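Provenance and format

Records in this collection were gathered into a single text stream. Each protein contributes a sequence line and a C-alpha cell line. The two records reproduced below are adjacent in the stream.
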Amino acid sequence: MRSMCAVLSCLALSSIIQGATMSSSEPPREGANQEEGNRLRLESSPYLLQHAFNPVDWWPWSPEALEEARRRDVPIFLSIGYSTCYWCHVMERESFEDPSIAAILNRDFLPIKVDREQRPDVDDIYMTACQVFTRMTEGRASGGWPLNAFLDPDTLAPFVVGTYSPPEPMPGRPSFTELLGTISRAWRDQREEVEAQGARIAEVVRGELASPTGRKDLSASLDDAVVTALLRYHDASEGGFGGAPKFPQPVYLEVLMDAAADRPEAVEAVRHTLDRMAVGGIHDQVAGGFHRYAVDGTWTVPHFEKMLYDNGQLASLYARSVAGSGDAYHARVLRDLADYVLREMTEDDGAFRSAQDAEVDAREGATHVWRPEEITEALAGADLAGESAFALEVYGLDRGPNFRDPHHPDDPPSNVLRLSDRPERLAAAVGIEPEEFERRLMMIDRALLEARDRRPQPGLDDKVLASWNGLMIGGLAEAGAALKEPAYVEASSRAADGVLARLGGVDDLRRNARGDVLGGPAYLDDHALLAHGLIALHRVSGEAERLEQAEALVAAARRHFRDPESGIWFDTRPDQADLLVRASNLNDGAMPSGAGTMMLVLAELAELTGNVAYLEDLEAFLAASSVSIATNPVGPIRSVMALRRLARLDPERAGRLETLGSTSGPGEGDGEADPDDDGGVLAAIVPDPDRPGGHLLLMRAADGWHVNAHDPGDAEAAEGLVGITLEAVSGGTVEVDWPIGEPWKEGVLVHEGELSIPITIRRESPDATVVLVFGWQACNDRVCLMPRQAEFAVAPEDAP
C-alpha cells in the first residue's frame, strides 16, 4: 500500500509542485487560430462550441484523436463538462482561454473535450476513476465537473484524475500549470510508474463498473429495507436527505411513494420534502420549475442551472402527490412547472430542450436574485406599488439578504426569493383568506417575471436528448392527468412525436440532436427512459401507438444491449472500442439508471400486454444483477422497485430469486471463492456505552477470511491492497482511532474474526443524520476479493 501511495503522491492532484511551468525544451506547439477556431467548431454540442475558439487545440472524443495521441506518444488530457456547468465556465476563463496554458497543453498533451450529456458512457467511466483516485490519494471519494483526467493513450487508463484546478497555487493544491508540468515530466521520466498507476486505477474502475458474476438471494423484504434506510436518512426538519449541498433525489422519493400503502411514515416524508422544496429557493418562485440543487441544507440558495431531467422527475412526483391527496399547493407548483417547460424549454416541433445556465455575465444567478429596491421598482412599473411591502415580507427580503456571490464579493448582497412556509399557513399568519393570498401572490409573480424577462437571460442548451425527453414526456402526461388539463397531455404527445421524428425513430434511435444534426447511437438509458415516458403517456391518453412505440424501443434495446448468455442489459453496445469497460450500472443518482429503468419497463410491459417474455427477461436480468442489488440495495433503487413489481405480477418467479445464492453457490461446491462475494464480512455502527457521545464500528469476518488493516503496511505484498475505511458522506464528520493490524503472510497487516473500533461522529447540526460509508477488502489464503462498501445512516436518536 505504501509503495502504491508513493507513486500516487508524486502525481496526486493534492501535492504542491514547485517551479513546474514548462516541462520540456521543445517549443510550445501552435494552438488554435482563435479567429478560425479549433476542431470543436464543427461540433453541434453547445458545450463543445463554447470551447471552439479557445487557444487550446481541442479535439472531440474520436478515433482520430486517440490515434493522434498515440502517434505523438503524449498523454491525453481529457476534460469533461456540460454547457450549464458553472465551474466549467470558471476554468475556461481562468485556464483554457490563457494562451500560455494552452501552449503547454498543446505541446505536452493531446487535449480532448467531451460533453458528458452526449457521451454519458465516457463520463461514467472517468467519474468512477476520479472517485477511485481521490479515495486512494485523499482518503475519501470525490468528483464533479469539470472532470479532468490524464490518460495513457495506448490503454486509455487514467493515471491522474481530478476536477477544477486553480490558475494559481492554493493551500494544499498546485496551480494548473504546475500540475501540467509535473505530469509531463513524470510521463517522460517515470513512464513505467505512470503506466503501472494507470493500470491499477483502470483495474479498480473495471471492477466497480463491470457487471459482477455470481448470484445472491434477492429477498422479498429488500424494498422494505431500502425504505427503512431512507427514512433514517431523511431530514425531519427540512425534508430531503442529508445536509448541504441538498439535491432533490427524485428516485428516493419515488420508492417512498411506492411504499405508501404499507409505510405511512414514508408518505409523510415525501409530503414534507415536496413542501420544503416548493417553498425554498430551489423552486423558482417567479417562473416555475426547479433548479438543480441547493448549496445549503434549507433549500434556500440554489445552484442556479435548471435541468430538464430534474423537472421531468419532479413533475411526476408532484403529479402523484396531487392525484393521491388533492393538495392544492402542490397542484399550483406542478402547473407552474409545466407552464415553465412549455414556455421556455420546448422546441417548435414539441421536443424539449436540455438545460438553462447558472450564470449570466459571469455572475451566478444574476437573472434570478433580487434586491428590495428592484422588487419595489418592478411592482411600481406594473401598477402594483401597493403590494411592495407584502411582496418583501412574503419573500423574506424584509429579513435581510440571503445571497452573496462568493466569486464577486464586491457585488451588493441580494435575495433568492423563497417562502417560509406553505401559502395557506402564511395567509393565516397575516389574517388573509388563502384565496386572497394566492391571488395577490400570483399578481406579484407575474409582474416580477415580466421585469426579470427584461434582464440578460441565462444561456440555453437547446440540444434534444432522448432519455431526458422521456422523463419530461412522462412527467407532463402525469401532470395533465392529475390536474385534469388536456393541454399538458397533448404537449406530452406532441413531444413524443417530435423526439421520435428528430432522433431517428424507434428502430434507429439516436442519443441526441441539435437542429437537424443527429448525434451518435442511443444508449440503454435512452431506450429505457423514453419507453418509460411513452408508457406513462399511454396510461394517461389510451393511445395504443404509444405502447407499440415503447415495445419497439425495448425490442431494439434487446438487440443492442442484452447479453443472451447472462441476461444482463449493458449500458453500451458491444462494438465500442473506445471504452475501458462495458458497464451495466444499476445505481440511480440524479438520473435514474438505464438498467434499473429497463427492469421497470419490462415489468410494465408484461402487465400491459400479458406477454410473459418480458417477465422472463426481467427475471434473468435481476438474477444476473443479484450481487449488486443485494450488496447495496439503496444504490440500485429502481431495480429493487422492479423486484417488488415482479413479486406482485408473478410470485413464483420472485420466489426463485429468493433462493439464488443457495441454488448456485460459489464454484458449485468446489471450494473456490466467488470473486463477487464479500468474504462474509458483517459490520454495524452502535453507540459506545463507555464513551458519552461515542460510537463503535463493529466488524466480523467469516472463518478463513480477513480484512486488510486500514494501513496494510510497508511490505511488498501489501502493494495494491485496499484497507478498511470509514468516511462521512453527509451530515457531519467522523474520526476513527484505527487499530494496527496483526501481521499475516509476508508482513501484510490484517484483522481476523471480530473487531471493535472506537469512532467519534460530529454532526453538522444537532438533528442531522450522518451517513457513513464503510469500505473493506476481504482476502483468504487464495484470493483477495474486489473492495466492497456498506452505507450506514446514524440518526440523532442513535446517539448514546
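Adjacent record:
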Amino acid sequence: MRKYLAFDIGGTNLKYGIVTEEAELIYKKIIKIQDTYKELVDYICKIYDETDDIEEVIGISCPESYNKEKKIIEGSSALSYIIGEDLLGDIKKKVNAEVIIENDGNCSLLGEIWNGKAKGKKNVALFVVGTAIGGAICIDGKIIKGVNNSAGELGYMLLRNDVKNMNFNSLGGLSSVGGIVEKTREVHKGKITNGIELFNEFDKNKQLKKAVEEYITYLSLACINIQYIIDPEVIIISGAISSNDKYIDILKEKVDEILKIKTFHKIKPTIVKAILGNDSNLLGIVYKYKQEIEYKT
C-alpha cells in the first residue's frame, strides 16, 4: 500500500502525518510552528529524510497560494515569513522528492471530496470558520482558483454595508470565531477569547446569545448567496467550530428565517458539517497529488 507524507502549515502549529492511498491517516503529529522560514524548510526536509516506507512525495497545505509563474507564496498570512518565498523550490533543493503545494482551504475541500461529506459530489462550496473565514469552491469536479488564485476566498465577501457612508464589512470580520468574539466584546467584557468559551456562556447570557446569533446570521446570508451563485449540491462548514452542533443548528435556523422573508428565494442550501475535522488538509493535499500526478500516469 502506498503511503504519503503530508504537511499542514498553520499560523500557530505545524501538523504532519502519513496518509495511505486508501485515504487513511495512519500517523499524525502537531508541533509549534517554527520561528523562521529557514527552520520550517529544514524541518520539513528532516522529517522527509527520516521517514521510511513512503512515496518520494512531499505534500504541503499552506496559507495563501503558490504562484507557479513567480515561484512564490502570495497573499497575506498569519505566518508572514512564508510570503514572497519559493517554498516549493527551496524544499526541492534539499531533498530528492516531488513537492506539491496547495492553499489550505482548497486542501480542506479536497479532503472532504476524497473521503468526507463531499464524496461523490461534483459541485460543492466550503466555508472554513476559524479565527478568520476561508473557503473553497468545486464546480464540475474541479477546484476553482480564478485568474488571481483567489477564487473561494469566501471570507472577503462584503456584507452589512453602508454604501452611503462607504462603510463595508467582510464576512470574515463578522462571522468568523475571531470576529464574533471581538464584536461581542462589550457584552462579555473581554472574558471570552475563543469559540469554546463563547458557547459555554451562550445559554447563560441572553444578551450574548442575541449578539452571537446576529453575527452567525451573516454566514447564513453568505450560504444563500453562494447557493444562487454556483448552485452547489452541499455547502460544507469546516473548522473547529463546525463540531459544535449548537453553532450549526443556529446557522440553519437563520437560513430558514431568511427564506421565510425572502419568498422569491426558493432554493434552500443543504448545509452540512465537515466530518474530517482538522485532518482534511492532510488528506486533501495527498488527493491533489493523486489527481494531478498518479491518475495521469
